[in-house]
Structure formats: C-alpha cells, structure tokens
Design a protein that fits this description.
Oligomer: single chain
Strand content: 25-35%
Distance between the termini: 17 Å
Order of helices and strands: HHEHEEHHHEEEHEEE
Number of domains: 1
C-alpha cells in the first residue's frame, strides 16, 4: 500500500472528521505493564517488522527481481501504523485501524475534534465542525480496487459514534475540506499504483498485492 493509497485513506478519515472506527475505545489505565501487555507489544513489533519487510521487497526490489506477490494481514497493517506511522498522523487523529472484506475496507479512527479544529482555519469557520467537540470514533467504509497498475476507491459511508452521515454532507465536505488539502484523494478517479504494483485485491482480513513487470 503505497503513499498515494495511504494519503487517500487518510483523506477519507479527514472527511469523516469534517462531516460530523472495530476496536474498543483506548484504555487510559496506568501503572506497570502486565505480562499480557508485554506479550502484545512484542507481537505488535513482530507484525510491524513483517509488514516492513514485505513492503521493502516491493518498494526496493533486489537487482534482477521480476516481481512477485505479497499478503498483508490486518494485524500487520495495524501494528505498522501503530509502531511506525502514528507519529505522522494529522493533528487530532489519535488511532487508525483498518479492516478488510472482499473489495471493501473500513478505516476507523479516534479523532479529537478540538485539536483538529485548532489546526485548521477552514474547520474554525465551519458550523459542522463547531458542533463537534472532544474525541469521537469516526468510521469510513469504502471500496478499493487495483488492477493493471491503476487504483480506484469510492466512499460507501461514514459514521461517527455509530451515527450515519448523510451522503450530501459527505460530498460537500469532501469538496470543501479534503480535496483542497489532498488533491489526489478524490474518489472514483483512477490513480497510478506506486512501486510498480500491478494489482491490489482486498480479501477478508488481508490485502493481496501483485507487483513487478
């Protein structure tokens, strides 16, 4: 999943935040880490390394490589986001998790609207944003496909704290808040897949990528 795809998905999350994510709300518990949490952290690091190794084979192929295929699981993607990418999330976005079905993905994020509004002049002027305060779970569902070196996605729906957002509001805020900041994140538009990726196939719990000549 290359930078363009990631930016598009982050754009979807920002749209969801402007308009109004399959894991429990984050725990604020403090104190020494339990044995279970230590094991979980080790598992996350292992999963993140597995993702990075597979992505490296795609992005930086060895000399003479003719391509191949790779499978990324939800656990690997979540771990990589948490371990390597979370410090680069847009202001106000606290967590991001992806879940996959055939040709469909869901992205769920914990969004602090107060932080996001403080970082965006457009948001400070928006009545919709003004009505939202504090932290909320935002979930975006969409289709994503990739073949012959081209990708395309569409937004199927957005929910905030389990409330559906009307499509007209989604389209309005996409035009006014997401596309000006992420001009390459428009839905229903073909874009070149990075790293010589030829196809992307979403399946339950995983993403299957073919790459190379």
């Amino acid at each position: 999943m290359g930078r363009r795809t990631v930016l598009s998905l982050l754009g979807l999350l920002l749209l969801g935040a402007g308009a109004w994510r399959f894991l429990r709300a984050p725990s604020e518990a403090s104190g020494p880490a339990s044995e279970a949490s230590v094991h979980t952290s080790a598992a996350n690091r292992t999963a993140a390394r597995a993702f990075a190794k597979k992505l490296g084979a795609i992005a930086l192929p060895q000399a003479g490589s003719t391509g191949g295929q790779a499978e990324f699981t939800e656990a690997e993607i979540d771990a990589f986001l948490q371990q390597e990418i979370s410090q680069h999330y847009p202001q106000g976005v606290k967590q991001i998790h992806f879940r996959f079905q055939r040709s469909r993905l869901s992205a769920r994020a914990l969004v602090d609207f107060d932080e996001m509004r403080a970082d965006s002049a457009a948001a400070r002027k928006s009545l919709v944003w003004a009505l939202l305060q504090g932290k909320h779970w935002v979930e975006v569902t969409g289709n994503l496909s990739g073949e012959n070196g081209l990708g395309r996605y569409d937004i199927l729906g957005i929910r905030i704290d389990d409330q559906d957002i009307p499509r007209v509001v989604i389209d309005l805020l996409l035009d006014h808040y997401v596309l000006p900041k992420y001009p390459g994140a428009g839905p229903n538009t073909d874009f070149d897949l990075p790293f010589n990726i030829r196809s992307i196939e979403l399946m339950p719990g995983k993403v299957f990528v073919r790459y190379g000549a």
